[in-house]
Amino acid sequence: MLTACGKQEDGKTKIVLTTGFSENEVFKIGSSSCDRSEIMVYLTNMQNQYEAVYGDQIWSRSITVRRWRLRSKMWCWRVWRRSRR
Known about the structure:
Shape: elongated
Number of strands: 3
Number of helices: 2
Strand content: 5-15%
Largest sheet: 3 strands, antiparallel
Order of helices and strands: EEEHH
Strand order of the largest sheet: 1-2-3
Helix content: 40-55%
Structural class: alpha+beta
Radius of gyration: 18 Å
């Protein structure tokens, strides 16, 4: 998932995913870019968050959409509950 916001002077956001990269660049948004080491930190953090909620077996288990939605709701509830402490 890519998330970003910004506008060029002409009011159009330019996101580059396939051309004009320097070595190790993964994508560009306007004049900003993300390199491989940055994206790996982001992905590793996301992996750790998923494993904290669903366990490290998440990557080898088959799960139905219904079960995934239920677990996602439970995770959101836990996060909300922790934030209220």
